[in-house]
């Protein structure tokens, strides 16, 4: 057979792939090929200035420039400012990816592979071109045992990775997983020269060699870190980067506690702060600089799913193993009292793992949900098939007293009775637990809860630890109760294995802090991940939400559909707000200093 004919036949046998500038999960991407910029940025934003910021979360220091391992405490800003991925997400859409390091993405019609083509202009900070081999190296590193186990959990369906040539790389899947091309497209890419050949878990304060818009300029003893904009940044004119990353320098200063941080802001030490405390927002953001307009106090609406925040109960602990006990503890939280006394009426109670969105399960399960739940009926509580579980309520005709009476009965059914001055099990052991926290503001809320628990004979003891010890104990699942917020997602998928699967429950360093080991939950996560369009995904997430809520792994807290921020009047921002965004990353990536 002629060689040319063999080549033509082999081409016909290869799976056909649809290539393009973007992909989205179950819908058509909003921005067409040839778009010039995202609508929520100012493409003509002026460049310049030095932005001063505080530590953006509970970290009070850092000892690593490596955000991909569970050892140590990584510095703020690394992922956003230094590491780029093949695709960039749009903050106007729930789940989409547009070309960044990749200038073309092709998902095979059978959805069992995805091929990316690296942009020939892409460069690392040391000037080296980004190649397909670098993408594979980054992937292999992240799924190794040296990196955080969350990457292995999310990417377990990737069967093989092939470098096709200098610029093209193909990921092949062991099963259909519509979300996987987007997940792979969002993975950070870095150079194999980073660390000089050391294993990734041995890289500490070695500046990353990556492709992002900023470089590390200076740092001081884990207390301060300055980035400077790379004058040779390769991607500044891309549609996914135009109008973004406008500050010449960005400095993070670390403060020991929230009081010191707030006072430093009012003294003018930095330019922007996100406030999560309702009390602080009402009572502390006052003074001459606010009256003069030098400092601006504002709220910005968002449409993010609220995620789940609450008192997390570690079901690995024997006292929390019974769901009736977990339900009883939840009945002791009086949110309405807290909202009046502590929060100035600013919050809404969380009633779902995906509150503030269409993903919330409500009422009775509908026909589409029942198609997923009925095959699991023998593994589920009958209550799952009734109205979706709502958190305790003390609004009339309900009351705290009635809730505590119900809690007492649940505890009795679970084998806990009050005698000799405490609630005890059959062996006579009192019901005691430790509440671990690394910051102060949640302590008063816990104390309000513990006062109610004392009426049931339960003793909860608070313990405050520093962030490093807190993180270490969380990675080891060494806690009874703590406060935690699960990251919100507009399109839940593979990360659910990390949070809720049986496999992750037994793997230290994962996000399954609650210790969920439910085969029905695993099946529902499979259904979410296998969803072929947005409508199917919404139904599967609602079914999962219903099952998780019924098991009472969390005593839900509250949420606000607004970001509360204060900032220097020198800053300006685009008037077209994105729909799904976090306040500080949005500011860092899209704001600018007024000329």
From TrEMBL:
The keyword Signal applies. The keyword Magnesium does not apply. Residues 99-504 form the Solute-binding protein family domain. Keywords: Signal. Residues 1-19 form the signal peptide. This is ABC transporter substrate-binding protein.
